[in-house]
Design goal:
Length: 358
């Protein structure tokens, strides 16, 4: 074998090695998140689990002294937990989820509320709610909400729909703007997967943390207001998304963008926020799997906010987990569910109860 042929073989092997190593190589943290968000929009179906846990809520305000009832509500919310599990498919659009709300403390209780959605209808299973008496023939039944009928009753020409795919796409487009404008070295970092408690079954190829602290808060707020907000407003005004929030008018967006360009007001507002906002912990951790999907996200929020003589301390954790991505969704209820009560019948039931009470 001559030298030229040897060189060709060696160069070919090196090229193959580079391609193979590139397939398994980790991306820059910011780049990895951007790629994961791009791929998230392409998910056609998945099973999901999300949770919101309010570990602590402490409010110090003159309003609580004057209104003890308000303080009771805040105390009830401490240690509140919401868990949502379900499945989704894009075409034809169908989603079902089980919403569990748990309130701990002296007046502890748990609510379970299954919900099923299609593009034009929604079914909500009526739970048994403590302290709120409900007709026995209603509890445990699904109430059918027909969006087309609601639109006709309201005299609207367009039918509102549950376009989950477009809502997700809007969220991802907003995230793209955030990632593009925020400096990678200042706000993003890769973390060791072993240092993060991932749910069972979640395998992470790369774990990335987006963190905001007291040191980079001013920079983050400036970027958010001057660079991110105007582009998000333009996004909401675009032909693609303008119907998502019908109440948001073009003139409102124009006014908001004008206010954002007032440097004096911006500087004053940033100083006020920084003075009354203390970050104990504020970050979002994303686990990206081998297929570059965001398999798990965890937001940790621990902040103190002081304004106008009141202080609010919040310690919360929000998680979301995706599995069975682009597989057959694990629907358990189906459409339409059994034991359905039309919305008109529900209105008659409550209307009749009202008449009887009078």
């Amino acid at each position: 074998m001559n030298r030229k042929l040897w060189m060709s073989v060696v160069m070919g092997m090196l090229a193959i090695m580079l391609v193979l190593s590139g397939c398994g190589a980790k991306k820059d943290p910011k780049e990895a998140l951007q790629a994961a968000m791009d791929n998230a929009v392409k998910m056609k179906s998945y099973d999901f689990k999300a949770s919101f846990v309010l570990n602590d809520l402490n409010v110090s305000s003159p309003e609580l002294t004057a209104n003890p009832e308000v303080g009771m509500v805040y105390n009830m919310l401490k240690n509140a937990q919401v868990t949502v599990t379900g499945a989704y498919q894009k075409d034809p659009m169908q989603m079902e989820m089980n919403v569990d709300l748990t309130i701990k403390g002296d007046a502890s209780f748990t609510l379970n509320m299954p919900i099923v959605m299609t593009k034009e209808k929604m079914w909500v299973k009526i739970p048994s709610i403590p302290m709120i008496p409900m007709p026995e023939n209603l509890v445990g039944k699904f109430v059918e909400i027909d969006m087309k009928k609601l639109a006709e009753q309201a005299g609207e020409s367009t039918v509102p729909t549950f376009d989950t795919a477009k809502s997700q796409e809007l969220s991802m487009d907003i995230m793209k703007i955030l990632f593009e404008k925020f400096d990678g070295k200042t706000f993003f970092q890769e973390v060791d997967a072993k240092s993060v408690t991932l749910p069972e079954g979640v395998e992470a190829k790369q774990v990335v943390k987006l963190a905001i602290n007291n040191e980079n808060l001013e920079q983050g707020l400036t970027v958010l207001v001057k660079d991110v907000a105007p582009q998000v407003l333009d996004l909401l005004a675009s032909d693609k998304y303008k119907d998502m929030i019908p109440s948001l008018k073009a003139e409102d967006i124009a006014t908001a963008k004008k206010d954002l360009t007032d440097e004096a007001k911006l500087k004053e507002a940033l100083a006020e926020i920084k003075k009354g906002f203390k970050i104990n912990d504020l970050n979002v951790v994303t686990a990206v799997n081998k297929d570059q999907f965001p398999a798990y996200q965890e937001a940790n929020i621990n902040v103190d906010v002081t304004a106008e003589g009141s202080t609010v301390k919040v310690n919360a954790k929000v998680t979301s987990e995706y599995s069975n991505i682009n597989g057959k969704p694990s629907f358990k209820i189906g459409t339409p569910p059994q034991d359905v009560i039309p919305m008109e019948q529900l209105e008659q039931m409550f209307g009749g109860a009202g008449v009887a009470a009078e």
